[in-house]
Design a protein that fits this description.
The chain is an alpha/beta fold and 471 residues long. The chain folds into three domains: 80-162, Helix Hairpins (Orthogonal Bundle); 164-336, Heat Shock Protein 90; 350-465, Rossmann fold (3-Layer(aba) Sandwich). The protein contains twelve helices and 13 strands. The structure holds adenosine-5'-triphosphate and magnesium ion (MG).
Length: 471
């Protein structure tokens, strides 16, 4: 057993001679030492606790750090997934556009080839008769030029698919879109153009801008209720956008104030609520039974990649307007020549086309169909009168060649008048005719061959205006 705590040497006189004083002192020291030891043990334990806690915290922090890294990785993956999705959307749209374009090109090509064929045919006839063939060659040249530009468009699109940045005239893209889509819109929808003169050029990819227009025109047509006359207007303007303008309407992609060229597609369709406008540009958002909700997402992607602005104005039952803005470059496009404007008039109903020359009647048919009519065809006067007898109730008008073997146009016209006087009849001829008697008898017009689309349209419009209004 250990003895008491050692005392000072001078205080040890002899064993057993320990004073009470010394004993008490030793005892006190012993108590103090044991208290100190206990305090130290407790402190050590606390330190160990703290260490454990710190360790736990460290583990939690490590786990947290790992989780955060994972979350960050997921966010990055999501961002790249979204970006990828956007790219896929554009790719899907591109394929679809290619399909629509190819369909449109095929359709337009057919019209153009028919015109080329018809004009070549009429030219040959004229040459044989020793008449001037220049107008036919001019018409053929124009048709071929247009066909070439359609081919270029398709090739450019099917090529890299990357934006082909160049100086773009909104007006020209608008005219091209009108030309391609007029024929495929529903009958109750009319497409109008309101194109500014001297519009500044912009920097962009014409085919992608065409794609934007295609989506906007398609949506506008789909927004027009069936059975009601709808109107779509494509408008171009030069505009100075200021703070005030930026405060009005819904800016999907806002701009900085400045000078811009704008391209607008406005419709008189069903319009949208403010909530719908906000959601309309989300990928896969659609309110249509067969819609895929990709049109406006692609529009936004394209305009954003062009650094342009996008504005929407819409009201339920008040129609919609989608407007894109791109910075105006210095200088402007030449004023589009009035004659290069495609016809945008549309009619409806059935036309009886009578001509013994297949190529000529095919030209007439394609022109009539271009304006939205359906066509019945007859090869001579007798057949024409028979068809007229059966179908006069459904006919909007008759377009008939004057000179045909067997019963000619004049005789057939007189037979038709006996059956139904309300159906306008226009006679066409390659010769100069001035038979005023026929007009006295109610002829609705004479159309001189060869005719261009504009003359054809004028003759049809004038004849249809002569129809007695129903009731
Ligand atoms: N001109 C418009 N008038 C009224 N609503 C419109 C118009 N344009 C778009 N919308 C609304 O925005 C929605 C999204 O349009 P978006 O073009 O993205 O897809 P979609 O037309 O439904 O389908 P998709 O274009 O893929 O065939 C439409 O379903 C429609 O509700
Ligand atoms: Mg759409």
């Amino acid at each position: 057993m250990p003895g008491p705590a050692p005392l000072a040497a001078d205080s040890i006189a002899e064993p057993g001679a320990v004073s009470d004083e010394q004993l008490r002192e030793a005892n006190e020291r012993l108590v103090l030492a044991s208290v100190t030891a206990q305090t130290m043990a407790e402190a050590a334990e606390r330190a160990a606790d703290q260490l454990r806690e710190a360790n736990e915290n460290l583990v939690v922090a490590t786990v947290n750090a790992q989780t955060m890294a994972q979350v960050a990785a997921e966010a990055a993956a999501h961002i790249s997934y979204t970006a990828n999705l956007e790219a896929q959307l554009l790719e899907a749209q591109k394929l679809e556009t290619l399909g629509v374009l190819a369909g449109g090109v095929a359709h337009d090509f057919n019209n153009l080839l028919t015109a080329i064929l018809g004009n070549a045919n009429l030219g040959t006839m004229s040459a044989e008769e020793g008449r001037d063939v220049t107008p036919y060659f001019e018409a053929i040249e124009k048709a071929a030029m247009r066909a070439a530009s359609l081919t270029r468009q398709l090739l450019a699109y099917a090529g890299t698919g990357k934006p082909v940045m160049a100086e773009v005239d909104f007006g020209i893209v608008a005219m091209e879109a009108i030309q391609v889509f007029t024929a495929s819109l529903p009958r109750n929808v009319a497409l109008h153009s309101d194109l500014a003169e001297g519009l500044p050029l912009v920097h962009g990819d014409a085919t992608q801008i065409f794609q934007v227009l295609m989506n906007l025109i398609t949506n506008a047509a789909e927004a027009c209720p069936a059975g009601v006359v709808g109107r779509i207007t494509i408008r171009t303007r030069e505009e100075t956008v200021d703070e005030a303008a930026l405060g009005t309407g819904h800016w999907v992609l806002p701009l900085t104030p400045g000078r811009y060229a704008s391209l607008e597609v406005a419709d008189t369709g069903e319009g949208m609520t403010p909530e719908l406008v906000k959601r309309a540009f989300e990928p896969f958002f659609t309110t249509k039974f067969t819609g895929r909700g990709l049109g406006l997402a692609a529009v936004m992607g394209i305009i954003r990649s062009h650094g342009g602005g996008l504005w929407v104005g819409s009201e339920p039952d008040g129609g919609s307007s989608f407007k894109i803005f791109m910075p105006a470059l210095a200088g402007s496009a030449g004023t589009p020549p009035a004659e290069s404007l495609p016809p945008v008039w549309r009619g409806e109903g059935q036309i009886l086309v009578v001509d013994d020359e297949l190529t000529v009647s095919t030209v007439a048919r394609s022109m009539a169909e271009h304006f939205g009519f359906s066509v019945l065809e007859a090869r001579d006067g007798l057949e024409a009168v028979e068809l007229f007898r059966l179908h006069h109730g459904e006919l909007a008008m008759v377009l008939m060649d004057l000179i045909m073997p067997g019963m000619d146009g004049q005789q057939a016209f007189r037979e038709m008048r006996k059956i139904d006087r309300s159906v306008p009849v226009v006679l066409s001829s390659g010769y100069n005719v001035s038979n005023t008697d026929l007009f006295v008898e109610g002829l609705a017009g004479l159309l001189k061959k060869p005719y261009r689309l504009a003359e054809f349209q004028e003759a049809l419009q004038r004849a249809l205006a002569m129809r007695p209004s129903p009731g």
